[in-house]
């Protein structure tokens, strides 16, 4: 059974898979269409990672990856108190 948190989670980053030849521009467009913002991007050989919030604002033991749709995932976590 998945671990449940007492506080609600927020999205820290959005990840797009590069497997299907997705360009950075296409990933940005999909990000905006899904209602997310473009801030910092980390490019790896397998993905584009768009930061939505600083990881410093989250409890590090609460990060999880969830699937939003095929080729698009989100890293979620429980914010630290006060964020």
Characterise the protein shown here.
With 83 residues, the protein is mainly β. It has one domain (10-77). Helix content is 12%, strand content 34%. The chain is built from 1 helix and 5 strands, in the order βαββββ. The chain has one helix at residues 24-33; strands at residues 10-17, 41-43, 47-51, 64-69, 72-77. A 5-stranded antiparallel sheet has the order 2-3-1-5-4. It is elongated, with a radius of gyration of 13 Å.
List keywords for this structure.
five-stranded antiparallel sheet, 83 residues, single chain, 5 strands, mainly beta, 34% strand
Biggest sheet character:
5 strands, antiparallel
The sequence of SSEs as H and E is EHEEEE
Query: How many DSSP-defined strands?
Result: 5
Contiguous low-pLDDT stretches (5 residues minimum) are none
Strand order of the largest sheet: 2-3-1-5-4
Morphology call = elongated
Global Rg: 13 Å
Contiguous helical run count: 1
User: Into which percent range does the helicity of residues fall?
Assistant: 10-25%
Mean pLDDT: 91
Strand pairing plus helix content: what structural class?
mainly beta
Distance between the termini: 28 Å
Whole-number tally of structural domains: 1
Strand proportion, as a percent range, falls in 25-35%
